[in-house]
Amino acid sequence: MTDETTIDNPKDEMLEKLERMLENMPENSRQPIRDLINKRKVELGLIKSGLPPAGYKLKKRAKKVVPVKPSRATMKSLGNIAKSVGKITEIKGEVSQDIDVKDEPLKKDRKLTEEADSYKY
Predict the structure, then answer these.
(1) What's the pLDDT tens digit per position in 14-69?
(2) What is the 3-state secondary structure (H, E, C) of the chain?
């Protein structure tokens, strides 16, 4: 009959021994024994541990998004955009007010012509 009670009662000999030791010890040295008692209770499943479970946490896989078939209007507008990409329309005959247009040659060209003219005389 005593064997059946020990099976039903999850306390084991080790836990009882630790509790008896705790009663006889002074207050200052009780904390390590309390830690051992709590550890044993966690092993037996009497209490839950405050620590996170050891090991890796499994990540949930991201759900794959099912592609949505674009509508005809969307495809048509994308086609028009694709046709116009890369084409450059040139504007002829317009001179902006900000651009200073001179008929004089560039400085480099002007120096070359001046040097050539200086040798003539």
Answers:
(1) 888 888 888 888 888 888 888 888 888 888 777 777 776 677 777 888 899 899 99
(2) CHHHHHHHCCCCHHHHHHHHHHHHCCHHHHHHHHHHHHHHHHHHCCCCCCCCCCCCCCCCCCCCCCCCCCCHHHHHHHHHHHHHCCCCCCCCCCCCCCCCCCCCCCHHHHHHHHHHHHHHC
Instruction: Name the nearest CA neighbour of 32 among 46, 41, 21, 43.
Output: 21
Residue 53 phi/psi, 5-degree rounding, is -65, 145
Q: For 74-121, how does the pLDDT look when each residue is reduced to its tens digit (9 = 90+)?
A: 999 999 988 888 777 777 766 666 666 666 666 666 666 767 666 665
- Residue that has been written with the tokens 């050539």 in this structure: 116
| Degrees, nearest 5: CA angle 95-112-109 | 10
